[in-house]
Specification:
single chain, mainly alpha, 2 domains, two-stranded antiparallel sheet, 10 helices, 4 strands, 50% helix
Length: 273
């Protein structure tokens, strides 16, 4: 990438000074999400800079980064001041120097949110006091939340911890901290044997569930049920087409004149879209 800009921490500075320097660097020198980005805003609308993975010229309808915790449908609580500046700087730095998708950014934000909660729980007064104990607390919080994104979020948390350590943004070295709960990636050599077969079988839906899917599709009459069961049918046949469903415009029904003629002669009906 031609626009890569590397932050180099000045070792003669304190951890607090290096942290402030990194935030100022990201705010004033980086161009990710445009030069007019309102860095101090609690949320960033980056729709114009987000492409859907797999579709080179397709943009999302809306993509907003919220540096906050969702309390309810209408209420959000901003990150604590000790993390807010770093969170924004780290997101912009990551987007500036690496190919980034909305999914990647969401994963980083999840890791930052759990780190924010861990800092609050530990009573930390500064991000520079982050250590392995606080990161372990973050992992425990994530485990208790029982999120399906545990592995990807803890990997992002490990990457953040490594960045803090390598750039001297913490008072005490964190070292090569690794989450104790993250499942290791399956290597090709692990794809054989009874253990792998049991793990694979556990992830598959039961035969009863698979048999119920076409029944639900045939019995659906309400528009809402027809849409859901049709989505399931498409995803069972071609999971990679999920983006077609998520980006499908409203009021997109197509009336095929040829089908109307066929319907009038055979009495068959169908829904097209």
């Amino acid at each position: 990438m031609d626009n890569i800009v590397i932050f180099t921490a000045q070792r003669e500075l304190t951890a607090e000074e290096r942290l402030a320097s990194f935030i100022a660097f990201a705010k004033l020198q980086l161009q990710a999400f445009g030069p007019k980005l309102d860095f101090d805003s609690p949320s960033w609308n980056i729709t114009d800079y987000c492409l859907i993975s797999g579709f080179r010229n397709t943009r999302l309808n809306e993509c907003t980064l919220h540096f906050s915790h969702r309390i309810s449908r209408q209420e959000r609580r901003p990150f604590t001041p000790i993390l807010m500046g770093f969170a924004k700087a780290y997101i912009r730095y990551s987007a500036n120097n690496n190919p980034t998708t909305p999914s990647n950014l969401s994963c980083i934000l999840r890791a930052l949110r759990i780190l924010d909660l861990a800092l609050i729980g530990a009573g930390s007064e500064s991000l520079t006091r982050c250590n392995a104990a606080i990161l372990d607390r973050a992992t425990a919080l994530l485990q208790s939340a029982n999120q399906g994104t545990f592995n990807s979020t803890t990997y992002a948390l490990e990457t953040i911890a490594r960045f803090l350590d390598e750039h001297g943004l913490v008072v005490n070295p964190i070292g090569s901290w690794v989450s104790s709960g993250r499942t290791k990636n399956i290597r090709s050599g692990d794809r054989l044997g009874n253990s792998f077969e049991r793990n694979r079988a556990r992830k598959l839906p039961s035969a009863e569930i698979l048999d119920a899917l076409p029944q639900a599709f045939r019995l659906a009459t309400e528009s809402r049920d027809v849409v859901v069961t049709s989505m399931v049918a498409i995803l069972c046949a071609a999971p990679q087409r999920v983006n077609e469903i998520l980006t499908l415009a409203a009021d997109c029904e197509i009336i095929d004149p040829a089908w109307e003629i066929l319907k009038s002669t055979t009495g068959r009906t169908r829904s097209t879209g």
